[in-house]
Write a structure and sequence with these properties.
- The protein is about 65% helix and about 5% strand.
- It has about 375 residues and is mainly alpha-helical.
- It has a three-stranded antiparallel sheet.
- Strand 1 and strand 2 form a beta hairpin.
- The chain starts with about 25 loop residues before the first strand and ends with a helix.
- The N terminus is likely disordered.
- It comes from Rhodanobacter aciditrophus.
- This is Type II secretion system protein GspF domain-containing protein.
- Keywords: Membrane, Transmembrane, Transmembrane helix.
Length: about 375
């Protein structure tokens, strides 16, 4: 059928996972009002051809703006897919069943449409993936079997769940210091009101601090801070990368293919190391020498040289992933301890300001006497 929905995959999407590239991409799409098939098009020309074919005027062409999935939306879709897959459905049928749960969402319709046209799962979903998750899901496009794809989806779902848990943990630790700061500011305003002090300045200070708190709370609650941490702290990136490699290696996918699928879309700080690993493997280097050494901060501890003798690639990778996970958890716990202390310090500054405003006139009066 002519005029099918197609997505250009050559160079139109970000090639790295930087914070700027992680922003949601707005897509411009077209559909025909009154079309029973409800087809969607990524440019106006095929939409016009299809309108003529079904006897519709070009005035019936409707413009639609869509965004790529955010982490929560994608996580929900993948979890539903795994749920249907566990009920003895094939992966593609499981994804179609998950897509039917939100059939009114144009992105879900487009993925279902591409699947029905014979596209692979990786190609059908690729245009709507958040850029920061493309390194993780890039292997879907290279995997031909169902088992490697399931392994990738499970690893990505676990990663997204960890991001949500981090957001919830940070949000919980913000409540107490924010309430303390607000209490101190309310005390300052009451003091200014009853002692004829500069109430306007105190109210402005209260509004500014409250606005900052709301912005911070929104960024944490919506997952933006967790996303920033997982993208810009190397420990989180290494843990996610190792998780994908471990899960796909368990299914028998060669290391070379895994690294090659990830290197084109990885974070800008990791691309060089992945390319170097692929080139070293291409040149016949040992696996222990080709793996990025920064994944293993204490190389002797992981016994990398044993990989070449025993062909046991999983053990050092799993050990490295667990070590990074423990390190990340330590830093998260440390951050959650610092946040309340920082809030108490800020609140103490406002309380000190209030007490000075309250007792300074008395001190000045005592000096005059």
């Amino acid at each position: 059928m002519g005029g099918k929905f197609t997505v250009n995959l050559s160079g139109s999407y970000p090639r790295n996972g930087s914070l700027a590239a992680g922003r949601k991409r707005i897509m411009k799409l077209y559909t025909i009002k009154g079309d029973d098939n409800a087809l969607l098009f990524d440019s106006k020309e095929p939409a016009i051809r299809h309108a003529v074919r079904i006897g519709k005027s070009t005035r019936h062409i409707k413009n639609i703006r869509s965004r790529s999935f955010n982490s929560i939306q994608l996580g929900s879709l993948l979890e539903n897919t795994l749920h249907y897959w566990n009920n003895q459905s094939g992966l593609q049928q499981a994804l179609l069943s998950a897509l039917e749960q939100k059939s009114k969402d144009f992105r879900f319709c487009m993925i279902a449409q591409r699947l029905s046209q014979g596209d692979s799962i990786g190609d059908a979903m690729w245009a709507f993936l958040p850029s920061h998750l493309k390194p993780m899901l890039a292997t879907l496009k290279q995997s031909s079997g169902e088992e490697p794809k399931i392994a990738v989806i499970k690893a990505v779902v676990n990663m997204l769940n960890r991001e949500q848990e981090l957001s919830q943990h940070l949000t919980k630790n913000l409540n107490y210091p924010f309430l303390i700061i607000q209490s101190a500011l309310v005390m300052a305003c009451i003091n200014a009101l009853f002692n004829n002090r500069d109430l306007f300045f105190t109210l402005c200070l209260w509004l500014c601090v409250s606005a900052i708190q709301l912005v911070v709370f929104y960024l944490v609650k919506s997952g933006h801070i967790a996303l920033w941490l997982t993208q810009n702290i190397k420990g989180f990136r290494y843990e996610n990368t190792l998780s994908i490699i471990v899960e796909m290696t368990k299914t028998g996918v060669p290391l070379h293919r895994i690294l090659k699928g990830m290197c084109l879309h990885s974070h800008q700080h990791d691309i060089l190391a992945l390319y170097q690993s692929v080139l070293l493997l291409d040149s016949g280097s040992k696996v222990s020498e080709a793996l990025p050494q920064q994944w293993f901060p204490k190389a002797k501890h992981y016994k990398l040289s044993s990989i070449d003798d025993t062909s046991d690639l999983l053990s050092p990778l799993i050990q490295a992933r667990e070590d990074w996970a423990r390190s990340n958890q330590y830093h998260i716990n440390l951050l959650c301890k610092i946040i309340p202390l920082l809030g108490i310090v800020i609140a103490a500054l406002f309380v000190t300001y209030t007490l000075l405003e309250l007792y300074l006139p008395i001190m000045e009066l005592n000096q005059l006497v």
